[in-house]
Amino acid sequence: MFMAIRAGQALGVKVAGVAGLVALLGFVMLMPFGVGGETNLASCPAGDAGRGGEPVPDSTARVRQVAFAKIIDSVAVTRGLPGQATLVALMTALQESQLDNIAYGDRDSVGLFQQRPSAGWGTVEQIMDPVYATEAFFGGSRPPTPPGLVDINGWPAMTYTEAAQAVQVSAFPDAYAKQEQRARDIAAEAGINLDRSGDPYAGRAGPKPAGTTGVPLTLDQCDDGGGLIDGKPINGVWPPQEATVSDPTGTGGMVTQRTAAWVAQARAALSSPPMSCWDAHAWNPTSDHPKGRACDVFVGGDARRSAPMRAKGDSIANWTIQTAAKTGVRYVIWYGKIWSARTGQWKPYNGGGVYDPTDATGGHYDHVHVSLY
User: Fold this and answer.
1) Least buried of 32, 92, 162, 360, by fewest C-beta within 10 Å?
2) Domain of residue 92, CATH code
3) Where is the ARB-07466-like C-terminal domain (predicted)?
4) Rounded Cα–Cα distance for residues 21 and 92 (Å)
């Protein structure tokens, strides 16, 4: 599915039914306005008010945006969804239609979320009902059949842009990220509480994933505290290595020569912190641990509850980053964030669809993960 915009760019979409709240827009003209077309990764800090080159909406357009935001949030509140669901929906609608109920789009896309009748989201008349369109975006037990937000397993553990993309299946999957600040500004103007808790799977048909109900998330919120450093991308050539060396941390497994060398240097520089490298990781076979290319360095507990532990983890992560060009470090995960040698920057860690990023271990608040090439 693709996005409807004046520039002809396209993004995709959803739909399901319900009525009411349209009275909020009884005074509103459906006057569309255009958007640009960059794509960007979801990374901190977001900071801007949308994509570069977008026209600033006039006061009349802003009134419409606020009114539609209230409708979207009213549907979420009625369902019992958390504020994060509203934020994902607002970011999506801003990217797809500039949060306007437009009657045109790429191919047959229409409405707030640019949902397509030909893709099974309902009739044009249904999709042009903002309540119906919002219910469709959130998904659940009622028609139409394509999955909405509550139908996506693990969406609360995704970044907002990933959650939006899971519903929209867009040709520009990273574009939603840059709408976050605009969505927050509009929500504030509309009096919407984006921090409220709720059931992220409210209205879903069938069983809900365990361990995520009612947990408010702040995965895309940058933590400006602490002492983590960024840097420039590291351009190096690191030939693949096989795990042929006994793990020096005593796990009984095998690691690469590069990993073993990193352990020796880390022990010397960091006063031999407790660490573990090889692990079978049967629950996550794609992990670098069973490949002998990763180590976990432990800080002694949940650093969210201990300033000294936080400082210790920051120190470990910073040393690892500062020496990455010489040791072959590929990425670091610590304190709810992931640093990549490819970008040289930190961004929020979403658990990769495997871990709960709000958990002390899943979010890497009790250890620093280091992966090497």
Assistant:
1) 360
2) 1.10.530
3) 252-353
4) 20
